[in-house]
Amino acid sequence: MSVGYVNIRDAPPDYRSISDTASANEPLIMIPIRIWIDSISSFLFEHRLDGVELFYRLPLSKEDKDNFVFFVRELRYKLESMRKTTSRQTPYIVAVYASPHSWAVKGESLVSDLLPSVDFFNVETDNFNAPNLETGVTGPLSPLYSKNDQSIDSKMRAYVCIAKEPSRLNFIVPFRGVSWKNVEYPLENEEQYRTVRMKNESGNALAWRDFKKEWDLSSAVWDEKSKTPYVWNPKNRSLLTFENERSMREKMEYMISKNLGGITVDRVEWDDDSNTLLNALTSIDVCPGGPKFKKNEVNYYCE
């Protein structure tokens, strides 16, 4: 179960808005925090679910962050109390959808503040070069590595070095790609990273099940740096950046090598009817011959 968390803007202490996208001039719909927590816990119990993911992508002010930490702590307390009263054998899982840009930076305490109440951080690593960012440059959505810090490796290193508990950190992978048009010249001889004209109309996200029908994937080229494939059509100046079975296996191998908690899939239904990408992920034995590392052994260099 995934829940979009709520933003605070001039609200009474015990209240939250149900939208984090409303403009300053739009009316807020307010609900007491206790009702919100009771609603989540009741839903989990009634539908026999194991946990909840809280989606609150950009708490900006200190007040927003403090309120979010308070909310998660109170939710954890409620779920633990419900577990005991219902004689549930295993604890409920509380996960948070974590921003790749503002949470794991020097001087930010949000990750550390949430650690006592959260089981997993699902780090947003599936949107690095999305067309909606309007950067005017193409690129893979979820590269393992890159020349800059826009990669799974860079962001997970930052999180692990702050949290010190890699087993509680997951990264998100997409079952989708981007079909780019009006594509021009490569940057620094990297074929996936190209400039585009009309950057606000340059690309569209496509589910794996859909772009297999629209593109000839037999002409795909493997990019060793990002560990992702792409298809470049110079005739019509179009580019497809995407994930395939090989890139999914590479991500699983990376997750194991870094002793991370796991992988989170964005939109499982975007796989094809044969579950091609999901099967690629599950084909990798997570513990061949037993665990390779101690729990929470850090396999990154942290300054």
Automatic annotation (TrEMBL):
**Biological process annotations from GO:** carbohydrate metabolic process
PROSITE patterns in the cross-refs: GH18_2
Q: Where is the GH18 domain?
A: 1-288
Q: Name one Pfam family in it.
A: Glyco_hydro_18
Q: Which GO terms describe its molecular function?
A: chitin binding
Q: Which InterPro entries match?
A: Chitinase_II/V-like_cat, Chitinase_insertion_sf, GH, Glyco_hydro18_cat
- PANTHER family to which the protein is assigned, alphabetical: CHITINASE, GH18 DOMAIN-CONTAINING PROTEIN
- What's this protein's name? GH18 domain-containing protein
Q: What species is this protein from?
A: Caenorhabditis brenneri
